[in-house]
Write a structure and sequence with these properties.
9-stranded mixed β-sheet, alpha/beta, Spore Coat Polysaccharide Biosynthesis Protein SpsA, Chain A, elongated, 2 domains
Length: 297
C-alpha cells in the first residue's frame, strides 16, 4: 500500500499538563508519511519546554501569540502539504494505529470524509461516540442519528479551501461551520467503526465551560450560511432555524412580560401567522400552557 501523506495540526495554549500525551500519541503511530505541526499561542506554562523535547520529530512548530484556535489551525493548515488533514487539540490523543486505519479508509479516491469512533472521557465518565449519518443538513439540524465529534472526522486537505476554509471570526463552533460547508459540497463519507481519538473533557475545556457561546455562534453561523450563494440548497433549512430561534425568543419574552395572562395569549395568537413555519407546533402549545400557569419559559 502507498501511504498518503497525513497532515495533523495541534493548536495549543497552556496545556502543559496534557500536550506531551498528545504529541506522543501522534509520533508513536510510526506512520511513514506523517506531517505534524504544532501551533502554540505563546504559552506561559511548560508547554514550550515539552515541545522542544520532540522538535526533531516535528515538521514545524512555533510559539507566538495568535488570534485564537481557528487562527492557529489556519496558520498550521497553510503549511500543510498532506493529502489528508485534521487538527488534534493539545488535550486529546490518538488511539494507537489510528493513522493506518484512516489511510486505509481513504484508499478509495472517491471518499471525501472518513468518520470513525471517538472516546469522550472525563474523570467520571467514558462514552464511545461513533460519528455517523453526517450530511450538511443533518449536522445543521442535528437530525436523529447524527453523531459528530470533530477529531474523529478526517478530511481531504485540497477540498477544505474549496468550501471556504475555517472561518476565524468564530472561536467555539468553527468546526461545526466548516464541516457543514464541507459536507454540502463533498458528501462522500466513509464511516468506520474503529476507535481513532480520545477526546478529553475537563474543567478548562471549551466544550465544558462555554455551552451558551457555542449556541450563540451556531445561530450566527446559520445566518451566515443563509446568505452564501454557494450553499443555496441549505437556505430553506437556515430560514427555518432562524424563524425557530426568533419564535422561541418571542415566546420567552411573552412569558416574562408584565402584562396580563390574557394579553400574553392574545399576543402569541396574533403573531403565529407571522411565524407560520414554526408556530403551529407542540412548542407553542407548551408555551401557552406555561403562560396560563404563570411559568417562565
Amino acid at each position: 500500500m502507498i501511504y498518503p501523506k497525513i497532515s495533523i495540526v495541534t493548536p495549543s495554549y497552556n496545556q502543559g499538563q496534557f500536550i506531551e500525551q498528545t504529541i506522543q500519541s501522534v509520533l508513536s503511530q510510526n506512520y511513514p508519511n506523517l506531517e505534524y505541526i504544532i501551533m502554540d499561542g505563546g504559552s506561559t506554562d511548560d508547554t514550550v519546554e515539552i515541545i522542544k523535547k520532540y522538535e526533531n520529530q516535528l515538521t514545524y512548530w512555533v510559539s507566538e501569540k495568535d488570534k485564537g484556535q481557528a487562527h492557529a489551525i489556519n496558520k498550521g493548515l497553510a503549511r500543510c502539504t498532506g493529502e489528508i488533514f485534521n487538527w488534534l487539540n493539545s488535550d486529546d490523543y490518538l488511539e494507537p494505529g489510528a493513522l493506518y486505519k484512516i489511510a486505509e479508509a481513504f484508499a478509495n479516491k472517491q471518499i471525501q470524509v472518513v468518520a470513525g469512533a471517538v472516546r469522550n472521557f472525563s474523570e467520571n465518565e467514558t462514552v464511545i461516540v461513533n460519528n455517523s449519518k453526517l450530511t450538511a443538513r443533518g449536522l445543521m439540524c442535528w437530525e436523529p442519528g447524527v453523531k459528530f465529534v470533530q477529531p474523529g472526522v478526517w478530511l481531504r486537505s485540497a477540498l477544505i479551501q474549496r468550501c471556504g476554509g475555517i472561518d476565524e471570526q468564530f472561536h467555539y463552533a468553527f468546526d461545526w461551520d466548516l464541516y457543514i460547508r464541507y459536507l454540502y459540497h463533498f458528501p462522500a463519507v466513509k464511516e468506520i467503526e474503529d476507535l481513532l481519538v480520545h477526546f478529553r473533557l475537563h474543567e478548562e475545556s471549551k466544550t465544558q465551560t462555554s455551552r451558551e457561546k457555542f449556541a450563540d455562534e451556531e445561530r450566527e453561523i446559520i445566518k451566515k450560511i443563509s446568505g452564501l450563494a454557494d450553499f443555496s440548497g441549505l437556505h430553506k433549512t437556515c430560514q427555518y432555524k432562524i424563524s425557530k430561534t426568533e419564535w422561541t425568543r418571542f415566546l420567552s419574552a411573552q412569558s416574562t412580560s408584565s402584562t396580563s395572562v390574557l394579553n400574553k395569549i392574545f399576543q402569541v395568537l396574533c403573531h403565529m401567522p407571522q411565524f407560520y413555519r414554526v408556530s403551529f407546533s407542540r412548542q407553542t402549545a407548551g408555551a401557552l400552557n406555561a403562560i396560563i400557569k404563570g411559568r417562565k419559559i
